[in-house]
Design brief:
The protein is of the alpha+beta class and 310 residues long. It has 8 helices and 11 strands. The strands form 2 sheets. The chain has an 8-stranded mixed sheet, sandwiched between helices. It has a 3-stranded antiparallel sheet with strand order 6-7-8, with helices on one face.
């Protein structure tokens, strides 16, 4: 019923758009100058709506409609990379706010001196996973380091992971006997309740060795539920990756995906530029991108990959 409701809403939206176009054409044929301003405004509105629906039509993957789990991990480079991870965290939170998506921090490990070691954020909203899917990969920053006494130029790396939130338990089955669950005191901020009580949860999936943690909530039960959400998403990713690898090997085209070349570079010195290396899409206003203006990069990736399987 949920799928039917979504499809019905989508079809109705396209039908309404077609009717608006027909109505606008009829107005234009009347050649009434008094209607010119109204017609121009409607034409601009139709163009924006069509562009929005055209982009949504590219999000046709099996999980593109789902909510997303966004994880950011600082790479090698110490404090600079941890600061870069925090900059990315701010960028994605700003982007989600612009789209009206709801965000919830599930797990957070602060940097030793500044920044973020790792963070996991739940992003909820229509097509959240579909829009964020192009962002997974290594992101590279080039700038004058604020943590270097000599103010030299540094290159920092951070890994962005994007996973669909699993709603249907039938997609991923977890045997409770395969889990080792440990509770401990949270190391982060959160008030006396978090510090005094063992509210943080660490779940180890014994067959795969996957470990997920959650310590951001005051309740051990909430942390356990959130950790299981993350575990299900990671198990689904492994399942789909194995399926894709088997298919690619049959086609003779499989290459293992590892931490390696970056998908995007953010240059703040000696000039400003953000460039996506997969699509060659670039902008000169790096600060706007870091403030959450990511739609151009996302759209360029989706257009370049129409009809392809990730």
């Amino acid at each position: 019923m949920k799928t039917l409701s979504v499809l019905r809403e989508e079809v109705t939206g396209w039908q309404d758009l077609r009717q608006r176009v027909q109505d606008a054409l009829e107005l234009a044929q009347m050649e009434d100058d008094s209607l010119r301003a109204e017609l121009e405004a409607e034409t601009e509105s139709l163009e924006r709506e069509f562009a929005r629906r055209e982009l949504a039509a590219m999000l046709n993957g099996p999980h593109d409609r789902s909510d997303a789990l966004l994880a950011i991990h600082a790479g090698a480079g110490g404090t600079d990379s941890q600061d870069w991870a925090e900059m990315l965290q701010r960028m994605y939170l700003r982007w989600a706010e612009r789209r009206g998506f709801r965000t919830e921090i599930l797990d957070y490990s602060p940097g030793e001196e500044a920044g973020t070691k790792s963070i996991t954020i739940a992003v909820s909203g229509p097509y959240a996973y579909g829009y964020l899917r192009p962002e997974k990969g290594v992101h590279r920053l080039v700038r004058l380091s604020p943590f270097d006494a000599a103010h030299r130029r540094h290159t920092s790396f951070a890994l962005v992971e994007v996973l669909p939130q699993v709603e249907d338990d039938a997609e991923v089955e977890i045997n409770p006997n395969d889990l080792r669950i440990d509770v401990y005191k949270s190391a982060g901020a959160g008030g006396q309740n978090v510090q005094k009580n063992a509210t943080a949860v660490r779940i180890t999936h014994l067959p795969t060795g996957l470990v997920v943690t959650c310590q951001n909530e005051r309740s051990q039960t909430q942390n356990r539920e959130n950790a299981l959400r993350v575990l299900k998403a990671r198990l689904l990713e492994i399942k789909e990756r194995e399926r894709a690898e088997e298919l690619a090997e049959l086609r003779g085209e499989y290459t293992k995906a590892e931490w390696g070349s970056q998908i995007r570079s953010y240059v703040l010195h000696p000039y400003q530029m953000v460039k996506d290396h997969r699509t060659n899409y670039e902008v000169g206003n790096a600060q706007a991108v870091l403030d959450g203006d990511l739609d151009g990069f996302i759209e360029a990736y989706l257009r370049a990959n129409v009809g392809k399987k990730d």
